[in-house]
Design goal:
CATH topology: Rossmann fold
Bound molecules: 2-acetamido-2-deoxy-beta-D-glucopyranose
Structural class: alpha/beta
Distance between the termini: 56 Å
Number of helices: 15
InterPro entries: AB_hydrolase_fold, Peptidase_S10, Ser_caboxypep_his_AS, Ser_caboxypep_ser_AS
CATH class: Alpha Beta
Strand content: 15-25%
Enzyme class: hydrolase
Helix content: 25-40%
GO biological process, one term: proteolysis
Family: Belongs to the peptidase S10 family.
Radius of gyration: 23 Å
Oligomer: single chain
Number of domains: 1
Largest sheet: 15 strands, mixed
Shape: globular
CATH superfamily: Alpha/Beta hydrolase fold, catalytic domain
Keywords: Carboxypeptidase, Glycoprotein, Hydrolase, Protease, Signal
């Protein structure tokens, strides 16, 4: 089943180019050892043309002369669909971004395309793949001979899906000369180049609705990435080029407006927001509540209204010490108040995923060329972002408002047992968000949404914005509530209300 590690040859792709076509040139491939000419022209290139399991096929695009995509087929994870893995080589091959692509289980030739990104900053999207919403899950029970089990609740049920390890330095993505990316706005450029090359190269994807999905720090990443895609689309229109059909953004337990972080945690610990009976000591709740106004004032003045790096860092330290520290010393799971913290990042799956992805036979199956072992979350990347205070320096909610004003559908969903990026914090920042639909949004009440007749959570919708809770799920919603998460995504992709029996919703304009 597993391929031997040996021969991952570098192969450059020669393409027949006719006069009026934009050329995908063979280019100076980074370390070419041979050339393969595929039949047909570039505009009818199908991923299905890529049949090699042992060697990458390299694809270049004239508009991104410093970039190239290398892709191969893989027997990884989901035997029911075509699976591809590869690298986007950035900056003349100095940086390499690793991706996994799974075709849809329904209709790969017409279903939408989704890209999933995990957070951190610095954590690998293979965590989402192998623990949450991917076509297979890490095998924790030694039930299979291949290290994974097939996931019937995978989000590729109805959409093609890409998992991208980004920025460089994360997961299997790496740099030849140690370069790093240390801000979300810089990372956006590589993601946009990746998506453009991908969609323009594989013509079956062209014009297909694109959904950007992710969780946690993706609440900072995705609003900026989607906004960059949107703005670049306007440039493309002016220049008569194809656009990316940016259709929606999905953010699970995201960090967006940071000013509500600590009030949200207080509510989780000291009210019935998460559990029926608050679990924190009353005396601790009183201390936290007493500190909150000062915490929030400092955050507002030094991080939000005007960003001042030194004062903002001091404000964050104050809030962490006076509000977060009690929970952090409790031994509870940061991502699920109802669970103990066991293993790396509080989940035994995390260590198992690392062992699995470090296995030489799995690396070979994926075509991994990254030097060094896999790490779930890169501390170097995390440190780089922290140096720039990336989490605080640009208000992510301003990007969200910008996208909503332009009609980009946005699904914000939250597992209610998360402490880290809690659902009350999300409820509070959405109430405070300034955009044209704000009045309508606030006039809506939460309605229950159900899956198979059981309540899954509550939902509130206004125009392009939907906020849904998933009751009883932690930070990683599809991990805890796979059926509910899959139903939510299915309804979202079909542009249905999350609770389909509800009366038609009002227009917000
Ligand atoms: C791995 O094994 C499990 C259980 O035996 C099976 O369901 C799954 O399809 C296998 N995965 C692959 C990629 O062959
Ligand atoms: C997993 O199962 C195989 C047989 O299917 C066995 O040889 C192996 O020792 C088991 N590993 C663990 C960690 O239990
Ligand atoms: C984007 O996708 C939608 C839904 O399939 C489609 O109606 C629309 O024409 C597409 N837009 C572009 C620019 O391809
Ligand atoms: C990578 O992991 C293997 C197996 O656990 C270990 O032997 C090796 O020392 C590790 N390499 C690095 C560079 O950490």
């Amino acid at each position: 089943m597993f391929k031997t590690a040996a021969a991952l040859a570098w192969i450059a792709l020669g393409v027949v180019v006719s006069a009026q076509q934009v050329a995908f040139d063979v280019g100076a491939s980074i370390r070419p050892v041979g050339t393969v000419s595929l039949p047909g022209n570039v505009w009818t290139r199908y991923l299905a043309d890529i049949t090699s399991h042992d060697a990458f096929v390299a694809l270049r695009h004239p508009r991104f002369p410093a970039h190239q995509v290398r892709v191969k087929k893989s027997e990884f994870c989901d035997p029911t669909v075509n699976v591809y893995t590869g690298y986007l080589d950035v900056d003349e091959g100095a940086k390499h971004l690793f991706f996994y692509f799974f075709e849809s289980r329904r209709n790969p030739d017409s279903d939408d395309v989704m890209m999933w990104i995990n957070g951190g900053p610095g954590c690998s999207s293979s965590m989402g793949l192998l623990m949450e919403l991917g076509p297979c899950r890490i095998d924790m029970k030694n039930a299979s001979s291949n290290g994974t089990t097939w996931n019937p609740y995978s989000w590729n049920a109805e959409t093609n899906i890409l998992f991208l390890d980004q920025p460089v330095g994360v997961g299997f993505s790496y740099a030849e000369f140690g370069e790093t990316i240390e801000t979300t706005e810089d990372a956006a450029k590589n993601v946009h180049a990746f998506l453009t090359i991908f969609f323009e190269t594989f013509s079956q994807s062209k014009g297909r609705p694109l959904h950007l999905a992710g969780e946690s720090y993706a609440g900072r990443y995705l609003p900026a990435f989607a906004s960059y895609v949107y703005d670049q689309n306007q440039v493309a229109i002016e220049e008569g080029r194809d656009t990316l059909n940016l259709t929606s953004v999905l953010i699970g337990n995201g960090i967006v407006d940071i000013s509500m972080t600590w009030r949200g945690r207080y509510e989780v610990e000291c009210t019935t927001a998460s559990l029926e009976v608050p679990f924190q000591k009353i005396s601790t709740c009183v201390r936290q509540k007493t500190a909150l106004p000062r915490c929030e004032k400092a955050i507002r003045e030094s991080c939000v209204d005007i960003f001042d790096a030194i004062n903002c860092r001091a404000a964050v330290s104050f809030c962490e010490a006076e509000v977060s520290a009690y929970y952090e010393s409790s031994g509870r799971n940061f991502y699920d108040v109802n669970k103990p913290c066991l293993g790396d990042l509080c989940y035994l799956e995390v260590g198992a995923i690392k062992s699995y992805l470090d296995d030489p036979s799995v690396r070979a199956l994926l075509g991994v060329e990254s030097p060094g072992n896999f790490s779930s979350c890169s501390s170097d990347v995390g440190r780089g972002f922290n140096v720039h205070l990336d989490k605080y320096s640009v208000p992510s909610q301003f990007y969200i408002a910008g996208l909503l004003e332009r009609g980009v559908r946005t699904l914000i969903y939250s597992g209610t047992h998360d402490w880290q990026c809690s659902w009350p914090a999300t409820r509070l920042w959405l109430d405070k968000l300034e955009w044209t639909g704000a009045v309508l949004y606030k006039s809506q009440t939460f309605r229950d949404w159900t899956v198979d007749g059981h309540k899954a959570g509550e939902v509130r919708t206004a125009g392009p914005l939907t906020f849904a809770t998933v009751r009883g799920a932690g930070h990683m919603v599809p991990f805890d509530k796979p059926a509910e998460a899959q139903a939510m995504v299915s309804r979202w992709l079909a542009q249905e209300d999350l609770q389909p029996t509800e009366v038609p919703r009002m227009s917000y304009t």
